[in-house]
Amino acid sequence: MSALVCHIGGMSVEELEKAVAELPPDKLAKFRAWFEAFDAELWDRQIEEDAKNGKLDKLVEKSEADFRAGRVRDL
């Protein structure tokens, strides 16, 4: 990591990593489930924002053109 130190809630990333590494299995599982849901929500919001701002328009246009041209296959 660079010399730049990131602090979250008064803790550095290194302190957070250490705290997570020291969690007992049941609390680690709970944290993992929470973080997975948290991360998924952030991802969903980013996709929605990108779609709203037109950042995905070229991808949609290309996929529609590929579909019309028959350049698709079943998954």
Structure, briefly:
By secondary structure, the chain is mainly α.
List the helices and strands and how they pair.
Blueprint: E1 7-8, E2 11-12, H1 13-21, H2 25-52, H3 57-68
Antiparallel strand pairs: 1-2
What does the model show?
It is a single chain. This protein is mainly alpha-helical and 75 residues long. The protein has a domain at 24-75. It is built from three helices and two strands. It has helices spanning 13-21, 25-52, 57-68, and strands spanning 7-8, 11-12. A two-stranded antiparallel ribbon has the order 1-2. It is elongated and about 55 Å long.
Question: Which class do the helix and strand fractions yield?
Answer: mainly alpha
Largest sheet: 2 strands, antiparallel
Please give the order of strands in the largest beta sheet.
1-2
Report how far apart the termini are. 40 Å
| Uncertain ranges | none
What is the tally of beta strands?
Answer: 2
Q: What is the gyration radius calculated from CA atoms?
A: 20 Å
